[in-house]
């Protein structure tokens, strides 16, 4: 039943997609969230294999995110081999992260959508590896978008925080400019999920207003991770199973703890007060203002350094300076506090207390964009979707349809503008574009 209905809807839109107006669609560039793109790794001859049973072939790129072995009966050594590939090493002098000695990583597919649509190139049909595929397919089939041309993606090394993304941000700028040029001067819509929203906000606060006005039509954020969340505290303490019951969170926790992006996602001091207890044990209370003590109790001095490196990157949450559509889910239990009732349970087995949010982001973080209303001249549209979970927001039909409608709205505005500028335009408000039209005549 559902399938039939869906194909009817798609048929209806297909007509529109192939109509004359498809040349007016604004190009879209997708910026994925944490864990939302493929990463490849390879080792060289200097690599010292800490686990002899790992079959690491030197000089060969292999996909390490997302690792299919995790889903199908993972063994302990699978996790240990994987950690060698993907965990980062922090240097507290340079304050930068690198791979383990002898390991090199890269993020494939920049500029096209393949590596954000599904996370494993070998298992493209495996439903749990689909990420932005539904969204891209909807753009292609209903509005006539073309992969690699009018819908593109900017995957990045999501293990790192914005302070280590200088090269990526330059590539992102070039991608936006190239896409604008190659579509005949159509302004780009940036669509970002979760951590991608924070990264784009960081990018935009470092761009001059003239550049934003020239190249960008709008920013659409899906669960933008503006102020972080208590979930990050829980991941430091007890790891995260990435939503899979096959994965023991404690076996992949070391990788998660090694990433600066996790430090960047710790609850913001702008949103959590020094009085609000986030972690409570028999002997201590920790707040968003005492991560030094909390990370110290976990013996993670590097994580604390990463926190210092990243905690002020979006301080005060400056407005993006482009029209923004801030979409997020609410009404899903979201971890708000960790309690340890006895000493043995610390840190692996917290008792979790839940509050409102999207299952990952606390509501106060997701709705931080509300404060931009009236703080920038461009429109700020804020919309909460009940019962839409943090990952589900990119596949939810409701959200995808909202996004398509939003793009159609831009298309109609573009068409209107185009008609005003064309000599055949007969009426409307006089303005600069009208004068240009008359002049041409
Ligand atoms: C950290 O970086 C500095 C400067 O590049 C270097 O001298 C030092 O050996 C590095 N430390 C480690 C532990 O690799
Ligand atoms: C830097 O790291 C080294 C070992 O990696 C450690 O001995 C030293 O205390 C650290 N320094 C700071 C300031 O964290
Ligand atoms: C983008 O990827 C699609 C397949 O997913 C391919 O058909 C298309 O040619 C690619 N475009 C570019 C510009 O690489
Ligand atoms: C932690 O805070 C609670 C109030 O939130 C307080 O009752 C308790 O005594 C505090 N515990 C410690 C060890 O400071």
From TrEMBL:
Basic and acidic residues composition bias: residue spans: 417-429
Cited InterPro entries: AB_hydrolase_fold (IPR029058), LACT/PDAT_acylTrfase (IPR003386)
Region spans: Disordered: 417-441
The keyword Signal is assigned to this record: yes
Molecular-function annotations in GO: O-acyltransferase activity
Signal sequence annotation: 1-19
UniProt keywords, alphabetically: Signal
Listed name of the protein: Group XV phospholipase A2
Lineage summary: Eukaryota, Metazoa, Ecdysozoa, Arthropoda, Crustacea
């Amino acid at each position: 039943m559902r399938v039939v209905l869906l194909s009817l809807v798609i048929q209806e839109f297909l007509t529109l997609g192939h109509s004359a107006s498809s040349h007016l669609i604004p190009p879209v560039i997708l910026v994925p969230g944490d864990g939302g793109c493929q990463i490849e790794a390879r080792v060289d001859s200097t690599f010292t294999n800490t686990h002899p049973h790992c079959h690491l072939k030197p000089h060969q790129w292999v996909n390490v995110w997302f690792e299919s072995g995790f889903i199908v009966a993972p063994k302990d050594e699978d996790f240990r081999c994987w950690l060698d590939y993907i965990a980062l090493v922090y240097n507290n002098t340079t304050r930068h992260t690198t791979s383990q000695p002898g390991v090199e990583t890269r993020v494939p597919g920049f500029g096209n959508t393949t590596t954000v649509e599904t996370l494993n190139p070998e298992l493209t049909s495996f439903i749990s590896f689909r990420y932005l595929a539904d969204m891209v397919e909807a753009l292609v089939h209903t509005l006539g978008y073309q992969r690699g041309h009018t819908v593109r993606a900017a995957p990045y090394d999501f293990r790192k925080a914005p302070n280590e993304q200088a090269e990526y941000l330059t590539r992102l700028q070039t991608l936006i400019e190239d896409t604008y040029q190659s579509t005949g001067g159509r302004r780009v819509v940036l669509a970002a999920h979760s951590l991608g929203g924070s990264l784009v906000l960081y990018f935009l606060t470092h761009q001059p207003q003239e550049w934003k006005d020239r190249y960008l039509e709008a920013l659409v954020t899906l669960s933008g991770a503006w102020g972080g969340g208590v979930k990050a505290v829980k991941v430091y303490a007890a790891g995260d199973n990435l939503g899979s019951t096959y994965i023991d969170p404690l076996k992949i926790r070391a990788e998660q703890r090694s990433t600066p992006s996790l430090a960047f996602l710790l609850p913001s001091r702008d949103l959590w007060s020094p009085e609000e207890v986030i972690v409570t044990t028999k002997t201590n209370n920790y707040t968003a203002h005492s991560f030094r003590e909390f990370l110290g109790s976990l013996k993670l001095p590097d994580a604390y350094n990463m926190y210092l490196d990243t905690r002020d990157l979006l301080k005060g949450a400056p407005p993006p300076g482009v029209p923004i559509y801030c979409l997020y889910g609410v009404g899903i239990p979201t971890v708000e506090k960790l309690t340890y009732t006895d000493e043995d349970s610390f840190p692996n087995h917290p008792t979790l207390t839940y509050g409102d949010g999207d299952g990952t982001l606390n509501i106060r973080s997701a709705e931080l964009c509300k404060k931009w209303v009236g703080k920038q001249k461009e429109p700020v549209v804020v919309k909460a979707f009940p019962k839409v979970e943090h990952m589900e927001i990119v596949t939810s039909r409701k959200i995808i349809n909202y996004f398509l409608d939003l793009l159609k709205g831009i298309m109609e505005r573009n068409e209107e503008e185009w008609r005003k500028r064309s000599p055949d335009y007969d009426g409307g408000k006089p303005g600069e574009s009208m004068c240009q039209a008359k002049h041409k005549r």
